[in-house]
Amino acid sequence: MASPITLRLDEETRQRVAQIARRKRTSASEVIREAILTWVEMHENTGSPYDSIADLIGVVQGGKPGRSTETGRQFKELLRQRRVRK
Asked: How far is residue 23's CA from residue 15's CA, in Å, rounded to a whole number?
C-alpha cells in the first residue's frame, strides 16, 4: 500500500493540478503520482549517453558521403572560385 506524504504547493500549482485531475477524471493525488513517477524515470541513471541514443544510430541515410573529411578541400575550392569571378 502507498504511504502518505505531505506536499506543499503554491495556490497556482494546486489549481493547475486540480484542473488536470478534473479533465482526466481522476484525483489530484493520481496526477501528482504520475508527475513524480515521470520525473523520477527521467532522472534515474539510464546508462551511458550511447545507450540513450543507440536506437537512433544508423537510422538516417543519405547526404553526400565524405562531408566531414572533404570540408577543407571544398572550402578552399569555393574561395578559389570566388577569386576567379571578381
From this structure: 12
